[in-house]
Amino acid sequence: MAELEVEIVAADHHVWAGAAKMVKARTSDGEIGILPGHSPLLAILAEGELAIEPVNGARLAVSVDGGFFSVDKDRVVIVADNAQLQDGAASDAGIR
User: Considering the entire predicted model, what is its pTM?
Assistant: First the structure.
């Protein structure tokens, strides 16, 4: 099964990294969903919530204050000005 390699970093700390089936985010142009095999993309991240469906475990929600994300060859890198896992997500996901 194809999967995404996802990494989320904030300006001052590492937030989360792992394998995912899907990532949803709000961009300056609207909401976007990323699945394995997505075309390369570079987008401006709007303030809001990222939704990540990991390969193993429950859905993760991450609040972000803007930044950008890129997609290339099933690798998603999200660089946020500020990012915080929502309550309960860190304990469920084995956050680094």
Answer: 0.86
